[in-house]
Amino acid sequence: MGFYDRHVLPRLVDLTCGSAALFPIRQWACEGLSGDVVELGFGSGRNVGAYPGAVSSVAAIEPSDTAWTLAADRVASASIDITRSGLDGERIPFADNTFDAALSTFTLCTIPDPRAAVDEVIRVVKDGGSLHFLEHGLAPDEHVRRWQRRLDPIERRVAGGCHLTRDVTRELTDAGLTITSIKQFYGARPKSLGFLSVGVARVG
């Protein structure tokens, strides 16, 4: 991992994914979370202010030291315990059935093996628990998809392996999760970057 990926990219992600316009959508994703939560791709902590009061603790899975440093003030100001608890969403360092819920925001697009990450969520979240998600990905409109396919190699290079063409809902359902609520819409322009899926999937 070079200087750009270690130091520049986490700051760019903090700016682009930390806009005020996205915060209400983060709140939708977090709505209904409770108990002990594992968060994949904690990043710079942009979800901290969106956690409901019923959340007891957050185990933050975050590979970037720079992102974790950027999150320091948000973590310190939180009213709940937030602990950096792992570096890799494909290998969550907790026993089976540890958590009440999981949260993933703008993460499954970038994890090299999203199926492995979802399988880990299924393993560490108790049966009847849930994965709350906010992700961007493959658009429903073919003219937008054409641009996504054209831009995907560039996106992967400049955005740390982020894919524009991942079908997030299919990744979840193929792994055996049941999506119980979802909202899908273009949340930003250009549309190739801005097709969002926000929802909840049941584990077990």
From TrEMBL:
CDD domains in alphabetical order: AdoMet_MTases
Record-level GO BP terms: methylation
EC class of the enzyme, as a word: transferase
Enzyme Commission number, as recorded: 2.1.1.-
Top-rank taxon: Bacteria
GO molecular-function terms, A-Z: methyltransferase activity
Pfam family, one: Methyltransf_11
InterPro entries: Methyltransf_11, SAM-dependent_MTases_sf, Thiol_S-MT
Domain Methyltransferase type: 39-132
Keyword vocabulary terms for this entry: Methyltransferase, Transferase
Protein name: Class I SAM-dependent methyltransferase
